[in-house]
Amino acid sequence: MQSQQLHVGVLVENVGFEGNIRAEGYPSSVTLFIIFGLALYAVIMYNFGKNVLESILSLFNYRRTLRMFEERRESDRQAAMLSNIMFSLVVGIFVSIVLPFFGAKPLWGSYALSILFFSIAANLLYTLKARVWKLLGAIFVVQTYSGIYVNSMFLYNHITGLILFPLVAIIPYIAENPAPYVIYIVIALFVISYFLKIFRIFQIIHSQNVSLFYFILYLCSLEFLPLLLFIKSCKMLSVNIVV
């Protein structure tokens, strides 16, 4: 006999995607965060649409990235600040609303607290990575190249957040059957963005004729380890699993 449990507005039958998952209705706090995201999205696209387009083109053109880094216009800084908030918000909303699809409850039983926690955690994680990169740049006297990567890292995050927000925003409101597919698409796009950032690191290191050993060492210490710690923290904080 299939077990059913209702937790914070989500009815789960058979834990995980293999089961029949039906969103009965998320609390209004989720809608409020999504409305805030829509307003932020509209402000970014209306006021900084040209900056966003240039950022998208720079993701696939290393020379354009260098030019944007050298120019660093005030409008780029403003767009980056708002886009950084958007990316953090997308991470917070996505992780929080997807937890029930895997049989876990939102942190502390509250979607609002869960979204805030994961949004802040994502922001702090990348802020810390940026500080470490700048520190390494100062130690090895390659501040310019560390700055280029930090700028590229945030560019990838910003565009990822803008692209994924519409998909993330519809997850709580679509029917049960297509929901897992939308989640898989979002996860796939996150993964693609992540590997594009790693490729950008390789471009920067390769341009300086740095040993491949140091590239692998970097990946293990500053990319994979923080990611594993973030995933482990999510699991530890979501220990209340439906059985």
State the main characteristics.
three-stranded antiparallel β-sheet, 243 residues, 73% helix, mainly alpha
Helix and strand arrangement:
Elements (H helix, E strand, L loop, with lengths): L3 E4 L2 E4 L6 E4 L4 H31 L3 H10 L2 H25 L12 H29 L3 H28 L8 H29 L4 H26 L6
Antiparallel strand pairs: 1-2, 2-3
Helix pairs in contact: 1-2, 1-3, 1-5, 3-4, 3-5, 4-5, 5-6, 6-7
Quick recap of the structure?
73% of the residues lie in helices and 5% in strands. It is mainly alpha-helical.
Describe the structure.
By secondary structure, this protein is mostly helical. The protein has one domain (29-237). Helix content is 73%, strand content 5%. It has seven helices and three strands. The chain has helices at residues 28-58, 62-71, 74-98, 111-139, 143-170, 179-207, 212-237, and strands at 4-7, 10-13, 20-23. A hairpin with a 2-residue loop joins β1 (4-7) and β2.
User: Helical amount among residues, as a percent range?
Assistant: over 70%
Q: In which order are the strands of the major sheet placed? A: 1-2-3
Low-confidence residue ranges: 1-24
Number of helices: 7
Q: Tell me, briefly, the overall form.
A: globular
Count of individual domains: 1
Radius of gyration, whole Å: 19 Å
Strand elements, count: 3
Class per helix and strand makeup: mainly alpha
Report the sheet-strand fraction: under 5%
Q: State the end-to-end distance.
A: 13 Å
Average of the residue pLDDT scores: 76
N-to-C order of helices and strands: EEEHHHHHHH
Q: Quick one: biggest sheet?
A: 3 strands, antiparallel
